[in-house]
Amino acid sequence: MVNISPAAYKGKRGTVTAITGASASITFDAESTKELRWAGSRRINVPDGVTQWTPNAGFPLTCLRVVG
Q1: How many CB atoms lie within 10 A of CB 13?
Q2: pTM, to two decimals
Q3: Residue 49: φ, ψ to 5°
Q4: In the chain, what are the domain boundaries?
Q5: At 42, is the secondary structure helix, strand, or coil?
Q6: Distance (Å, whole) CA 46 – CA 66
Q7: pLDDT along the chain (68 residues), means of 10
Q8: Residue 17 contacts by C-beta under 8 Å, 6 or more apart in sequence?
Q9: C-alpha to C-alpha distances, 17 to 10, 13, 39, 40, nearest whole angstrom
Q10: How far is CA 38 from the centre of its chain?
Q11: What is the rounded CA–CA span in Å between residue 21 and residue 45?
């Protein structure tokens, strides 16, 4: 992810699970989920015990970057 706020999402990886209009649902991989859990941001609440996380909010497609 690029050009997104909060900054804790920048550089995280995951899989697009759905696209609705100009936004996408993302399931973050295990490493990114762990990093987001400990990001220290009160705006990001990753539940304990999950290894992959899908937030309720959609992310703008313009913030996504395809990696191979």
Answers
A1: 15
A2: 0.84
A3: 85, -5
A4: 7-63
A5: coil
A6: 24
A7: 81 93 95 86 81 90 86
A8: 24, 25, 26, 27, 54
A9: 18, 13, 23, 26
A10: 14
A11: 25
